[in-house]
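Homework help board

Subject: predicted structure for assignment chain

Our instructor gave us this sequence and asked us to write out the predicted structure in token form, then describe one feature. I got the tokens but I'm not sure how to describe them. Can anyone check?
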Amino acid sequence: SFKLLLKDYWKQTQKKKKELYNYVGKDFEKYLLLNLGYAARMYPKLWQGLETDQPVGLELNLIEAFEFLKESAWILEDSGYKVIIPAWWTPQGRQRAKIR
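My token output:
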């Protein structure tokens, strides 16, 4: 699998981006922004992160983070988005924590 932070992507030189496009496709930015827009329809808080032409993320307070983990993360994941959540939040992680 391939993981790249958006803040690192936007900082890359055009030469580096062209090398990346050989791996992910030349329309990467178009599909990135399009898919972030689709995701924001499911989790409207994402619109805050899309207020720039080079989005890198958004900040959540504790309550917003809890609500995201409780409901929105699963909706996004069921829709085909890869959501990285803390291991302790998964059913397997909670089960393992109880056993220990």
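Reply (TA_rk): Your tokens look well-formed. For the description, you could write something like this. Residues 62-78 form the longest helix (17 residues). That's the kind of observation they're looking for.
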